[in-house]
């Protein structure tokens, strides 16, 4: 997931990521500040920092840390489900003008270890192949976990659908029985009425 969004001074922006259990998540971000004189976003935003907060589906705070204007954060999920990742600048009126605009570039990788190419180049070819092979194995494990998570979600959805269908069926049976009972009662009432009036 790679995106960018605009934010105001000290404005908190959050995104939701659906993450399987025991999955490594790595986020890279860069902050740019709007320059009023140049009428463009500057490449860097010195003096600014980003406060990153990650909340689990059970509302537990998994990560809460202040970083610089450009950085990397990471965490491992303990529960499967929707994790909330929030970023907020720590700018003040002394650093940035009140109400100034910030552009935040965010790149989130789920279940992936970034390859350090300099490390790979420093090793011989055999070690580089082993390193890449381990990376591929990690990716296979991540895909397997993703599939298991999707299977669990599908199973929950199927059970919910079956319960809903069962409830609808029973409600239809109850309605039918009520209608039949009312029909029998009306016929009996009409018959008793005609007998009492000696019309039959």
CATH class of the domain at 2-112: Mainly Beta
Helix percentage range? 25-40%
Q: What is the chains' assembly state? A: single chain
Q: How far do the termini sit from each other?
A: 81 Å
Q: Which strand-content bin applies to the residues? A: 25-35%
CATH superfamily of the domain at 2-112: GOLD domain
Q: What is the CATH-assigned architecture of the domain at 2-112?
A: Sandwich
The radius of gyration computed from the alpha-carbon positions, rounded to a whole number of angstroms, is: 31 Å
Question: CATH topology of the domain at 2-112, which one?
Answer: Jelly Rolls
Model regions low in confidence, pLDDT < 50 over at least 5 residues? 93-99
The dominant shape is elongated
Main pleated-sheet profile? 5 strands, antiparallel
**Count of DSSP strands:** 9
- Report mean pLDDT, rounded to a whole number: 83
SSE run: EEEEEEEEEHH
Tell me the number of helical segments per DSSP (H or I, 4 or more residues long).
Answer: 2
GO cellular component, one term: endoplasmic reticulum membrane
Subcellular location: Endoplasmic reticulum membrane; Membrane
Membrane topology: Single-pass type I membrane protein
Protein name: TMD11 protein
